[in-house]
Amino acid sequence: MSRERDDSAGPTERGIGAGGGGVSGTSGASEASGAAERRTAARAIAAAGGSGVTGAGSGGTASGAGTASGSVTAHLSHRVPDLGALELLLAVARHGSLGAAAREVGITQPAASSRIRSMERQLGVALVDRSPRGSRLTDAGALVTDWARRIVESAEAFDAGVQALRGRRDSRLRVVASMTIAEYLLPGWLIALRAERPDTAVSLQAGNSAVVAERLLAGEADLGFVEGLAVPDGLDGTVVAHDRLAVVVAPSHPWARRRKPIDPAELAGTPLVLREHGSGTRQVLDAALAGHGGLARPLLELASTTAVKAAAVSGAGPAVLSELAIAEELSSRRLVAVPVAGAHLRRDLRAVWPTGHRPTGPARDLLSLTRA
């Protein structure tokens, strides 16, 4: 049985010794006498042959009979009380009262009494003498309390270290995305993330879908976004949006005035302004026209959506672009969309990450925002 702790309370109280908290395991004897009694208690515990207790103090190790056969660490969790029980014992040492200790750790007195009894059964020794005047540690209890204090302090140091690691992880987010998503969707998502995590520094790299996979698999990014037909090898992913490719031309191009849709064979046989191999846009277009002879040799092959769009606007030739990228140009009539019949130009946009490494921290929060 465990409990949640308020980390803001700090560990200072837990560092108080058993003798300094008003409860003595030696009933007022001198320090030398107390040390002798603790050694006696250690020998008694070792002789008891119970579940066993391992101490890391200067006096070496005291253990139950079960540890003599070989591995000291085997089934350690069955021999060592949980942190909640050890913290309760330390609270009893500080207050000299089971009721006060129960209040400190946030449980009822009957629950505290039950936990102490369970720990005594687990260790095979009596830890607390209970009387109408309060609760007093036995000699064995005082020794176990000394060991417990070290365990709890080590656990607090462990917790602080993990918190620091988590804080360092949460202080930055590295995102890599294919061009269309990087230019037209991620800015809005990142603005929303900024409102939730103002202290997280975000870096964004843009590249085609192949580059996204390479960066993620090399550990150079925490979360990626791709526009291809499927999740790249070595990655897991989820669909976050949908998109459609459109054929566009400048208003001066003959296709701008045609009323009959272009069929896939005519589109495949026409030199186009295209994205490079490896881009999600190119993958979708290649797949859509594979059964119609495949793409003709490109008129131009460019490495960004912006470059393809600029070439189309200038009248270089027909281009194939995401509908997300051309909304403004269509509205202002700088580009004209040409209808296409019989070609599947719809695609899914995905968030991706290395297989088996589900996003955590700010990457998880950004993923949630894409679905909002």
UniProtKB/TrEMBL annotation:
Do you know which Gene3D superfamilies this protein is assigned to?
Answer: Periplasmic binding protein-like II, Winged helix-like DNA-binding domain superfamily/Winged helix DNA-binding domain
Q: Does the keyword Transcription regulation apply?
A: yes
Indicate the transmembrane segments per the record.
none
Please verify whether the record's keywords include Translocase: no
Q: Extract the InterPro entries matched here.
A: LysR_HTH_N, LysR_subst-bd, WH-like_DNA-bd_sf, WH_DNA-bd_sf
Bias category Low complexity: which stretches? Answer: 26-35
- Biased composition range(s): Gly residues: 16-25, 50-63
Per UniProt, residues of the HTH lysR-type domain are 81-138
Describe the family membership recorded for this protein in Swiss-Prot or TrEMBL: Belongs to the LysR transcriptional regulatory family.
Q: What is this protein called?
A: Transcriptional regulator
Q: Which organism is it from?
A: Streptomyces hydrogenans
